[in-house]
Design a protein that fits this description.
By secondary structure, the chain is an alpha/beta fold. It contains 10 helices and 6 strands; from the N terminus they run H-E-H-H-H-H-H-E-H-E-H-E-H-E-E-H. A 6-stranded parallel sheet has the order 3-2-1-4-5-6, with helices on one face.
Length: 238
Protein backbone atom coordinates (compact mmCIF):
# COMPACT_ATOMS: atom_id res chain seq x y z
CA UNK A 1 0.00 0.00 0.00
CA UNK A 2 1.16 3.54 -0.74
CA UNK A 3 2.54 5.63 2.09
CA UNK A 4 0.18 8.10 3.69
CA UNK A 5 0.06 11.59 2.13
CA UNK A 6 0.12 14.89 3.96
CA UNK A 7 -3.12 15.50 5.82
CA UNK A 8 -4.04 18.91 4.48
CA UNK A 9 -7.45 20.55 4.27
CA UNK A 10 -9.71 17.88 2.81
CA UNK A 11 -12.13 20.29 1.16
CA UNK A 12 -12.10 20.41 -2.63
CA UNK A 13 -13.27 18.02 -5.29
CA UNK A 14 -12.70 14.64 -3.67
CA UNK A 15 -16.33 14.37 -2.55
CA UNK A 16 -17.85 15.14 -5.95
CA UNK A 17 -18.63 12.99 -8.97
CA UNK A 18 -15.20 13.83 -10.38
CA UNK A 19 -13.60 10.87 -8.64
CA UNK A 20 -15.82 8.30 -10.36
CA UNK A 21 -15.22 9.90 -13.77
CA UNK A 22 -11.43 9.48 -13.79
CA UNK A 23 -10.27 6.64 -16.04
CA UNK A 24 -6.62 7.62 -16.69
CA UNK A 25 -3.98 10.08 -15.50
CA UNK A 26 -1.73 12.34 -17.63
CA UNK A 27 1.39 13.65 -15.92
CA UNK A 28 3.44 16.69 -16.83
CA UNK A 29 7.15 16.28 -16.08
CA UNK A 30 9.03 19.56 -15.59
CA UNK A 31 8.35 21.01 -12.16
CA UNK A 32 5.75 18.36 -11.35
CA UNK A 33 7.69 15.09 -11.27
CA UNK A 34 11.24 16.45 -11.45
CA UNK A 35 12.76 19.73 -10.33
CA UNK A 36 13.89 20.82 -13.77
CA UNK A 37 12.47 24.34 -13.56
CA UNK A 38 15.33 25.23 -11.23
CA UNK A 39 17.75 24.07 -13.93
CA UNK A 40 15.86 25.90 -16.68
CA UNK A 41 16.17 29.05 -14.60
CA UNK A 42 19.95 28.62 -14.46
CA UNK A 43 20.04 28.04 -18.22
CA UNK A 44 17.92 31.08 -18.99
CA UNK A 45 19.93 33.29 -16.68
CA UNK A 46 23.23 32.06 -18.12
CA UNK A 47 22.07 32.70 -21.68
CA UNK A 48 20.73 36.15 -20.89
CA UNK A 49 23.70 37.28 -18.80
CA UNK A 50 25.84 36.71 -21.87
CA UNK A 51 23.66 39.37 -23.52
CA UNK A 52 23.41 41.82 -20.62
CA UNK A 53 20.05 40.70 -19.22
CA UNK A 54 18.74 38.56 -16.36
CA UNK A 55 16.10 35.86 -16.36
CA UNK A 56 12.82 36.69 -14.64
CA UNK A 57 9.65 35.05 -13.37
CA UNK A 58 7.67 36.99 -15.97
CA UNK A 59 9.69 35.54 -18.83
CA UNK A 60 9.66 32.08 -17.30
CA UNK A 61 5.85 32.13 -17.21
CA UNK A 62 5.77 32.99 -20.92
CA UNK A 63 8.18 30.19 -21.86
CA UNK A 64 6.74 27.38 -19.74
CA UNK A 65 5.02 24.61 -21.65
CA UNK A 66 6.15 25.85 -25.04
CA UNK A 67 8.19 23.64 -27.33
CA UNK A 68 11.77 24.17 -28.50
CA UNK A 69 12.09 27.20 -30.74
CA UNK A 70 8.66 28.48 -29.69
CA UNK A 71 9.94 28.71 -26.11
CA UNK A 72 13.14 30.56 -26.92
CA UNK A 73 11.24 32.85 -29.30
CA UNK A 74 9.51 34.18 -26.19
CA UNK A 75 12.94 35.08 -24.82
CA UNK A 76 13.94 36.73 -28.10
CA UNK A 77 10.75 38.80 -28.22
CA UNK A 78 10.84 39.69 -24.53
CA UNK A 79 14.38 41.11 -24.66
CA UNK A 80 14.44 42.01 -28.37
CA UNK A 81 17.45 39.80 -29.00
CA UNK A 82 19.15 39.58 -32.37
CA UNK A 83 19.61 35.78 -32.19
CA UNK A 84 17.63 33.36 -34.32
CA UNK A 85 15.45 30.91 -32.42
CA UNK A 86 17.45 28.00 -33.83
CA UNK A 87 20.79 29.40 -32.64
CA UNK A 88 19.46 30.31 -29.22
CA UNK A 89 17.94 26.86 -28.78
CA UNK A 90 21.25 25.23 -29.68
CA UNK A 91 23.07 27.37 -27.12
CA UNK A 92 20.42 26.62 -24.51
CA UNK A 93 20.68 22.89 -25.19
CA UNK A 94 24.43 23.00 -24.60
CA UNK A 95 24.03 24.63 -21.19
CA UNK A 96 21.07 22.44 -20.19
CA UNK A 97 22.85 19.28 -21.28
CA UNK A 98 25.83 20.14 -19.08
CA UNK A 99 23.71 20.82 -16.00
CA UNK A 100 20.97 18.20 -16.23
CA UNK A 101 22.75 14.91 -15.38
CA UNK A 102 24.25 16.18 -12.12
CA UNK A 103 21.41 18.44 -10.96
CA UNK A 104 18.21 16.54 -11.74
CA UNK A 105 16.21 15.50 -8.71
CA UNK A 106 12.64 14.32 -8.06
CA UNK A 107 9.98 16.60 -6.65
CA UNK A 108 8.95 15.89 -3.04
CA UNK A 109 6.58 12.94 -2.75
CA UNK A 110 7.19 11.57 -6.24
CA UNK A 111 7.77 7.94 -5.26
CA UNK A 112 4.79 7.95 -2.90
CA UNK A 113 2.61 9.40 -5.65
CA UNK A 114 3.71 6.75 -8.14
CA UNK A 115 2.89 4.10 -5.55
CA UNK A 116 -0.57 5.65 -5.17
CA UNK A 117 -1.04 5.52 -8.94
CA UNK A 118 -0.11 1.84 -8.95
CA UNK A 119 -2.53 1.21 -6.11
CA UNK A 120 -5.37 2.89 -8.03
CA UNK A 121 -5.04 0.57 -11.00
CA UNK A 122 -5.50 3.48 -13.42
CA UNK A 123 -3.26 3.78 -16.49
CA UNK A 124 -0.92 6.77 -16.33
CA UNK A 125 1.27 8.43 -18.95
CA UNK A 126 3.82 11.21 -19.39
CA UNK A 127 2.73 14.35 -21.27
CA UNK A 128 5.60 16.83 -21.41
CA UNK A 129 6.61 19.70 -23.64
CA UNK A 130 10.24 18.66 -23.20
CA UNK A 131 11.84 17.03 -26.17
CA UNK A 132 12.31 13.28 -26.14
CA UNK A 133 16.09 13.43 -25.86
CA UNK A 134 15.76 15.16 -22.48
CA UNK A 135 13.05 12.77 -21.32
CA UNK A 136 15.43 9.92 -22.10
CA UNK A 137 18.18 11.50 -19.98
CA UNK A 138 15.87 12.16 -17.03
CA UNK A 139 14.21 8.74 -17.11
CA UNK A 140 17.38 6.77 -17.78
CA UNK A 141 17.49 5.43 -14.22
CA UNK A 142 13.78 5.73 -13.32
CA UNK A 143 12.55 2.24 -12.47
CA UNK A 144 8.89 2.91 -13.23
CA UNK A 145 9.37 4.27 -16.74
CA UNK A 146 8.14 0.96 -18.20
CA UNK A 147 4.91 1.36 -16.23
CA UNK A 148 3.94 4.42 -18.26
CA UNK A 149 1.14 3.68 -20.72
CA UNK A 150 2.90 5.95 -23.22
CA UNK A 151 5.14 9.01 -23.41
CA UNK A 152 4.11 12.13 -25.32
CA UNK A 153 6.79 14.79 -25.74
CA UNK A 154 7.15 18.11 -27.46
CA UNK A 155 8.44 16.20 -30.47
CA UNK A 156 5.05 14.52 -30.86
CA UNK A 157 2.84 17.61 -31.18
CA UNK A 158 2.71 20.66 -33.41
CA UNK A 159 1.34 23.07 -30.84
CA UNK A 160 2.81 23.45 -27.37
CA UNK A 161 0.94 24.35 -24.21
CA UNK A 162 -1.29 26.31 -23.59
CA UNK A 163 -2.75 24.81 -26.78
CA UNK A 164 -4.79 21.69 -25.88
CA UNK A 165 -3.20 19.44 -28.52
CA UNK A 166 -1.02 17.56 -26.02
CA UNK A 167 -3.96 16.56 -23.86
CA UNK A 168 -6.34 15.87 -26.70
CA UNK A 169 -3.68 13.53 -28.09
CA UNK A 170 -3.23 11.91 -24.68
CA UNK A 171 -6.95 11.24 -24.31
CA UNK A 172 -6.99 9.71 -27.78
CA UNK A 173 -4.04 7.48 -26.86
CA UNK A 174 -5.82 6.37 -23.70
CA UNK A 175 -8.95 5.74 -25.76
CA UNK A 176 -11.13 7.85 -23.48
CA UNK A 177 -12.96 11.17 -23.59
CA UNK A 178 -10.91 14.12 -22.27
CA UNK A 179 -13.42 14.68 -19.47
CA UNK A 180 -12.48 11.24 -18.10
CA UNK A 181 -8.77 12.09 -17.88
CA UNK A 182 -7.04 13.57 -14.85
CA UNK A 183 -4.25 15.98 -15.79
CA UNK A 184 -1.56 17.02 -13.32
CA UNK A 185 0.30 20.24 -14.11
CA UNK A 186 2.53 22.66 -12.26
CA UNK A 187 2.28 25.69 -14.59
CA UNK A 188 -0.33 28.14 -15.75
CA UNK A 189 0.22 27.29 -19.41
CA UNK A 190 -0.07 23.57 -18.72
CA UNK A 191 -3.20 24.08 -16.66
CA UNK A 192 -4.72 26.13 -19.48
CA UNK A 193 -3.91 23.36 -21.96
CA UNK A 194 -5.63 20.71 -19.86
CA UNK A 195 -8.66 22.90 -19.21
CA UNK A 196 -8.98 23.76 -22.91
CA UNK A 197 -8.90 20.05 -23.74
CA UNK A 198 -11.81 19.47 -21.38
CA UNK A 199 -9.85 17.35 -18.90
CA UNK A 200 -10.06 17.33 -15.11
CA UNK A 201 -7.03 19.40 -14.11
CA UNK A 202 -5.23 19.45 -10.78
CA UNK A 203 -2.52 22.08 -10.55
CA UNK A 204 0.44 21.37 -8.27
CA UNK A 205 2.42 24.64 -8.28
CA UNK A 206 6.15 24.53 -7.66
CA UNK A 207 8.09 27.36 -6.02
CA UNK A 208 8.78 28.64 -9.54
CA UNK A 209 5.12 28.69 -10.63
CA UNK A 210 3.12 29.44 -7.46
CA UNK A 211 2.21 32.96 -8.64
CA UNK A 212 0.96 31.90 -12.08
CA UNK A 213 -2.68 31.75 -13.21
CA UNK A 214 -4.35 28.39 -12.56
CA UNK A 215 -7.83 29.42 -13.67
CA UNK A 216 -10.04 26.45 -14.49
CA UNK A 217 -8.19 23.96 -12.30
CA UNK A 218 -10.53 21.71 -10.34
CA UNK A 219 -8.03 21.72 -7.48
CA UNK A 220 -4.79 23.50 -6.61
CA UNK A 221 -2.84 20.96 -4.57
CA UNK A 222 -0.09 21.74 -2.10
CA UNK A 223 2.18 18.99 -3.40
CA UNK A 224 2.13 15.44 -4.73
CA UNK A 225 1.46 14.41 -1.12
CA UNK A 226 -1.76 16.42 -0.80
CA UNK A 227 -4.49 14.09 0.50
CA UNK A 228 -7.12 15.84 -1.63
CA UNK A 229 -5.23 14.71 -4.73
CA UNK A 230 -4.77 11.16 -3.45
CA UNK A 231 -8.49 10.86 -2.68
CA UNK A 232 -9.40 11.49 -6.32
CA UNK A 233 -8.03 8.07 -7.29
CA UNK A 234 -9.83 4.77 -6.73
CA UNK A 235 -8.84 2.77 -3.67
CA UNK A 236 -8.09 -0.96 -3.86
CA UNK A 237 -11.02 -3.19 -3.00
CA UNK A 238 -8.95 -5.69 -0.99
Amino acid sequence: MAAEPNRTDSTGIANTDVQSNIQAVALDMDGLLFDTERIYWQVGDTILQRRGFRYSAELQALMMGRIGTAAVQQMIDFHQLDDSAEDLLEESDEVYGELLPSQIRPMPGLEQWVNRLRESGLPFALTTSSRRKWVDVIFETVAWREELAFVLTGDDVTNGKPHPEMYLSAAARFGIAPENMLVLEDSGNGTAAGVAAGAIVVSVPSPHTKDQDFQGAALIADSLLDTRLWELLPHPTN
